[in-house]
Amino acid sequence: MKIILASMIAMTGLISPACAALKTQTVEYKEGNNILEGYLAYDDALSGKRPGILVVHEWKGLNAYAQRRADMLAQLGYVAFAADIYGKGIRPQTIDEAGATAGKYKENRALLRARVNAGLDVLKAQPNVDTSKLAAIGYCFGGTAVLELGRSGANVKGIVSFHGGLSNPTPQDARNIKARVLILHGAADPFVQADEVAGFEKEMTDAHVNYRLIKYPGAMHGFTNPDNKNVPPGALYNEAADKASWIEMQRFFNGIFS
Fold first, then answer.
1. How confident is the model at residue 35 (pLDDT cuts 50, 70, 90)?
2. Which of 82, 152, 170, 189 has a CA that sits 20 to 30 A from residue 17's CA?
3. Could you tell me the CA-to-CA distances from 66 to 9, 59, 169, 170, 257 in Å, in that order?
4. C-alpha angle 223-12-50 in degrees, rounded to nearest 5
5. Cβ-based neighbours of 47, under 8 Å, separated by 6 or more
6. In terms of pLDDT, which residue wins out, 252 or 2?
7. For helices 141-151 and 109-124, what crossing angle results, to 10°?
């Protein structure tokens, strides 16, 4: 409890719930000719500019889960923008649909980089965002996306992947990463196995990236989402890992934005 409390008190911009005035809105924007629809959240009770956090969704697209994470960041005093990688109205409903849609971007990293950078541009354009203090977080598919944001050379201070994919067909692009990187990984994740983790660590080391990888014992893929109930097998919520990883993210942000 003392560790949790100290971490929360130390958070930049942390406010009490009684003072919060959460504002949210849907934001339509474009990448090329493609219409996207993201979700913006911030605390209207705060004045002045503050750090901005880009949030990238899981493989089923921008949904209530990603929006809730954006709300949680706003309640910590950040401006949060949940990007839409897939496009307006494209929200896979089944596992097969989600796999096919996510696969389109995993197989075309240039397109994935373009979509995630379009979301970052929306965040940077917000009048209450301090553009010298930007970071990105992503979940599962979104973890892959925010790493590709870094590999594209985007000027962000931090990147956080929650149970994200770590493969990269062009590991030499890691030299473009300007951010510090935090990987929050389930040690029992059957979808991101030891060889993929080892390949990622080599990629980061070879490119001299400032990174940290934390493994949560017993945690499987998708460990932060309560909707994950081992369907598909191997995707399962883990309350302890969820809470611990969120606290770790807060410490990370406190460090990069201080």
1. very high
2. 82
3. 24, 11, 27, 28, 23
4. 100
5. none
6. 252
7. 80
Closest CA to 141 of 173, 175, 95, 199: 95
Amino acid present at 25: Q
User: Which residues have a Cβ under 8 Å from the Cβ of 130 and sit 6 or more positions away?
Assistant: 49, 50, 51, 52
**Nearest-angstrom CA–CA distance, 53 and 81:** 6
Pairing of strands 158-162, 180-186: parallel
Distance CA 75, CA 78 (A): 7
Helix axes 141-151, 95-106, angle to 10 degrees: 10
Sheet containing strand 158-162, strands side by side: 22-31, 34-43, 79-82, 50-56, 129-139, 158-162, 180-186, 211-216
Q: Is omega for the bond preceding 232 within 30 degrees of 0, making it cis?
A: yes
CA distances from 39 to 19, 83, 119 (A): 22, 7, 10
124-173 residue pLDDT tens: 999 999 999 999 999 999 999 999 999 999 999 999 999 999 999 999 99
Kindly report the number of other CB atoms within 10 A of residue 108's CB atom.
12
d(CA 248, CA 184): 9
Q: What is the pLDDT of residue 88?
A: 98
